[in-house]
Amino acid sequence: MNKVQKAVFLDRDGVINIDKAYVSKIEDFEFCEGVFETLFHFQSLGYLLIIVTNQSGIGRGYYSEEDFQTLMAWMQKELLHVNIKIDAIYHCPHAPEAQCECRKPRSGMLKEAIKTFHIDVSQSWMIGDKPSDIEAALGAGITQTILLSRELQNIKAKYCVNFLLDTINLIKQ
User: Fold this and answer.
1) pTM for the complete prediction?
2) Active site residue 28
3) Alpha helices, DSSP H only, in 45-167?
4) How far apart are CA 127 and CA 80, in angstroms?
């Protein structure tokens, strides 16, 4: 029997890296301020770190699945240099028109991770920068949600913060 685990689910663009619209190349990837300290903090508290990201640029033909996988391998290697291990990356490669179950605001990616890793949703968190991230988490039973936004106020999110480092004050155990 596998033990139940807790996780912090993270959107990628706008949370892990600066959202520059369809980031698919290493030279365009820029980590957000505070991401290393924040992820290290969560990891030190025993949380799995799981990225759930819509990547419609694949479905739209802007870049390939291989481009995405190459970039994610590079990103994981960069994080390992500072002792941060990403436990899994789930992505939806479909364009919005596909009406798939994995594209946020639907909860397919989160539900798959919850099942695969035996995650206790009551002890887990979602950090995103769009209302669709929060909706996906709520649909998967994750009620501890943080919207990272300077403009949006989302009444569905439990917390709204301006900077990623602010999440350290919320996720403490």
Assistant:
1) 0.95
2) no
3) 56-59, 65-80, 108-117, 131-139
4) 21
Nearest to 86 by CA among 163, 31, 145: 31
Residue-wise pLDDT tens digits, 32-42: 999 999 999 99
Tokens of 139: 């649909």
Q: Give the pLDDT band of residue 1 (cuts 50, 70, 90).
A: low
> Collapsing DSSP states into helix, strand and coil, what is residue 92?
strand
Which is the catalytic residue, given 13, 87, 129, 166? 13
Report how far residue 121's alpha carbon sits from residue 5's, in angstroms, rounded to the nearest whole number: 9
Say which DSSP state 17 is in: B
State pLDDT tens for residues 70-112: 999 999 999 999 999 999 999 999 999 999 999 999 999 999 9
Does 133 participate in catalysis according to the annotation?
no
Terminal CA-CA length for the chain: 24
Domains, the chain, ordered by start:
8-169 (3.40.50.1000)
